[in-house]
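Final report, closing paragraph on structural work. Over the funding period we assembled a curated collection of sequence-structure pairs, and we close with a single example.
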Amino acid sequence: MLFKNSIEGITSEMLEGFFDGWPTPPSPETHFNLLENSSKVVLALNEDADQVVGFITAISDGILSAYIPFLEVLPEYKNRGVGKELVNRMMTELADIYMIDLCCDDDLVPYYEKLGMVKANGMLLRNYEMQSGIKAE
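Its predicted structure, as stored:
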């Protein structure tokens, strides 16, 4: 497993299989664009298959705050420590930031607590018509 902090050498073809269970998932091309536009990114790659098997992104002002919108590992690579390693590497990337926030479903709270995070209240708004990242015509 190779971990890297950039999308250098990554193509949209290497991003197949993510956003499992989303009714209208982003395409691999849109996924590539969101990686490209993130403040920070850490990728897990299976070099033998030339495939990204996990990723985490952060959006930050670079001074005080960062938000982690995505942590995802392909199903066949789960429970192998890939997600934990992605989080740990992202926390290293964001070590100089005062507040690092993320939202997650209730069933994931224990996972993030094990990684040193604490549960907090949050508010959100979802525009499901834009879930794929492409505006419907």
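Residues 2-130 form a domain with the Aminopeptidase fold (CATH 3.40.630.30). The chain has one domain: 2-130. We thank the funder for supporting this effort.
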